[in-house]
Design brief:
Elements (H helix, E strand, L loop, with lengths): L16 H10 L3 E3 L2 E3 L3 E3 L14 H12 L4 E8 L11 E2 L5 H13 L3 E7 L7 H4 L4 E2 L4 E2 L4 E2 L1 E2 L2 H20 L4 E6 L4 H6 L14 H4 L1 H14 L5 E8 L8 H14 L3 E6 L16 H7 L3 H14 L11 H10 L5 E3 L5 H10 L3 E4 L1 H5 L3 H6 L13 H5 L8 H9 L12
Parallel strand pairs: 3-4, 3-15, 4-5, 4-6, 6-11, 7-10, 11-12, 12-13, 14-15
Antiparallel strand pairs: 1-2, 8-9
Bound molecules: flavin mononucleotide.
Length: 426
């Protein structure tokens, strides 16, 4: 093997011409509306479960410091509700001025490790928990939520205006807290997705019916955010390619949805999939950890429901590498703004190919939960693929004190500490 040292690479690597060209692209810097990112890999929003009482904890800050130190170009603080009534769990942050100093601590910490920081802004809509928000959840249309065992009420025009303003103000506070970008959650069956999806939107007014009407609320939100954050602050949008439900959003309409987001002023799109209240493991693929979900469940009714009907309530979909590539390509070809690939990007070759195809960045979730140093290890040539086995027990862990790789912890327990090994002289 002939060794070459590429800019940004610390180790000797194989130097076939193709590999040089591609690796250089994945690990060279990229630009998002003037925001310079050190490489093309962004940690996706993976709910941390580390914000007890809705606060920014030291554990949350350390979690993102680790991801930043592990080489990601930008880390995304997951699901932050734009208002108190957009929460599904007690341990979800909602944006308010009192937490700006603590959020600033988080962004400073991430910046000190050389990465940028983004925050995912959303609202659960009909998936919000009545117990947590202490009132009836709101949604595009009145709908029963099996996971919450409650109905929501249909949003009025005043509610819509209030939420549009909540998104704008939340983004302004994020910018004030030192974030480099915001990511609007318009997928996974959350409030914006509930307006976009024909499965949840049955309105007869100008916010329901055609794609144009179903996009009106999300479009108003993007425009309001822009008004608050100005022209030079990146607005990313995580949207659905499809909901994974027969009557839900399909890829053909999602292409139109993408164009509306582009026209509204979004700076980048992240095409994901799935509907949390219906097909929660579509966006992940792999094993459904029912046993762990049951044991971490505090709500007695949900515990009983999951024990008895979990296998029917939560569909298992096998994991494939790059499982969202086909739809993501269709969206990329339909818009001129950058498209960020997400979903099963676990091998170096796949990631290089995705960037060479024209995706501007890659978002990565579980590979960095499995090993926060994964990006550095890829860059240094220590590994070429993540060894995450998609057991998805990290998803159950986030409800039991904070997300971590359960397999990794088990491996640590099985590996004896050399200091603990005692040699007998007999
Ligand atoms: C533990 C965990 C929590 C997640 N929480 C969120 C979330 O809060 N918001 C979101 O948009 N996606 C969430 N996701 C989905 C990921 O961002 C990503 O879309 C998905 O894991 C597919 O990417 P991957 O194959 O690289 O893991 C979560 C995923 C995991 C594993």
């Amino acid at each position: 093997m002939v060794c070459v040292y590429l800019p940004g690479r610390d180790k000797c690597i194989d130097n076939s011409f193709n590999k040089m060209k591609k690796s250089h692209s994945l690990f060279s810097s990229g630009n998002l509306l003037g925001l310079e990112l050190r490489n093309k890999i962004i940690r996706s929003g993976c709910f941390e479960g580390m914000s007890q009482g809705g606060d920014v904890t030291d554990k949350l800050i350390e979690h993102h410091r680790e991801v930043a130190a592990g080489g990601a170009a930008m880390t995304t603080v997951a699901y932050c509700s734009v208002s108190f009534d957009g929460r599904a769990f007690e341990n979800e942050i909602w944006m308010r001025k009192e937490i700006i100093p603590d959020l600033h601590k988080l962004t400073d910490t991430v910046h000190n490790e050389g990465a940028a920081a983004s925050i995912q802004l959303g609202h659960c809509g009909y998936f919000a928990s009545k117990k947590v928000i202490k009132k009836t959840p709101v949604g595009a249309s009145r709908k029963f939520n099996l996971f919450r065992l409650s109905y929501c009420r249909e949003m009025t025009k005043d509610d819509i205006e209030e939420k549009v303003e909540d998104f704008g103000r939340a983004a302004a506070m994020a910018k004030q807290a030192g974030f480099d970008a915001v990511e609007v959650h318009a997928g996974h069956g959350y409030l914006l997705s509930q307006f976009i999806s024909p499965y949840t939107n049955h309105r007869n007014d100008k916010y329901g019916g055609s794609v144009e009407n179903r996009m009106r609320f999300p479009v108003e939100i993007i425009k309001r955010i822009r008004k608050y954050v100005g022209n030079n602050f990146p607005i990313l949008v995580k949207m659905n390619q499809y909901d994974g439900i027969k009557d839900g959003l399909q890829i053909k309409e999602a292409v139109e949805v993408a164009k509306y987001f582009e026209k509204a002023g979004a700076d980048a799109l992240i095409p994901s999939c799935g509907f949390t209240s219906k097909t929660p493991f579509y966006m992940l693929r792999g094993n459904v950890p029912i046993k762990e979900m049951v044991s971490n469940q505090n709500d007695i009714f949900m515990k009983a429901g999951l024990t008895l009907f979990g296998k029917f309530m939560v569909e298992e979909v096998p994991f494939d590498k790059l499982f969202l590539a086909d739809g993501a390509r269709r969206i990329k070809d339909a818009v001129s703004i950058p498209v960020i690939y997400i979903g099963g990007a676990v091998s170096l070759t796949d990631m290089e190919n995705i960037i060479d195809e024209g995706f501007k960045f890659i978002q990565m979730g579980r590979a960095t939960i499995r090993d926060p140093q994964f990006v550095n290890k890829l860059k240094n040539g220590e590994v070429t693929e993540s060894d995450c086995d998609h057991c998805n027990r990290c998803v159950a862990a986030m409800d039991a004190g904070g997300v971590y790789c359960v397999t990794h912890k088990e491996e640590e327990r099985l590996t004896p500490n050399p200091n603990d090994i005692k040699f007998s002289t007999n």
